[in-house]
Structure formats: structure tokens, C-alpha cells
Design goal:
single chain, 38% helix, alpha+beta
Length: 89
Amino acid sequence: MKQGLASVAACLLLAACATPTVYGPRTGPNASGFSEMRIEADRFRVSYTGGNGASPDQVADYALLRAAEITVAQGYDWYRVVEQFTQGT
């Protein structure tokens, strides 16, 4: 029984090392998170950098979520994705 619990504890510790990408602002050059840059009065470039193990779908969803947040904050009710670029490692 103790060996089984030790195995479970070891698996949990390893899983904790592979932390998922959490939605939030990018806090440094090697950190995951979103960033945006205003291009024109009503046009923004939104980027999202995923952490280790983040799927391309998750990263794209987080970028779209940030675009929606900016849209609402600017007083608009829709946005258009003009260009999309995904780069994996």
C-alpha cells in the first residue's frame, strides 16, 4: 500500500512540473501570456505565447479571448481576425 501511495505521489509531483498555460498577461520575454499593440485607433495586434505543453488550439483560443476583451473594452461588439500566424517549437 505504501509503495502504491509513493507511486501516486511521484506522478503528482511530475504532473505539477508540467504546469498548464494559464490565461493572463505576458510578464517577461520568456513568459507565457498575451500582449497587444495598438496599430490604429480601432485596430490591434494580439499575440499569445503558450507555455510548455500548450496546444496550438489553446493558444489560439487565448489570443481570440484577448481580442474579445479588447473589443468590449473599446466599446465595440464584434471584431475581425485579419491575419493569423502560428509558430510552434
